[in-house]
Amino acid sequence: MALEHAEVLRAAHLARIDLSESDAAHYLDDIRRILEMVDQLQSLDTEGVAPLAHPLEATQRLRADEVTETSLRDEYQRCAPQVENGLYLVPRVVE
Question: Enzyme group, top EC level (predicted)?
Answer without folding.
Answer: ligase
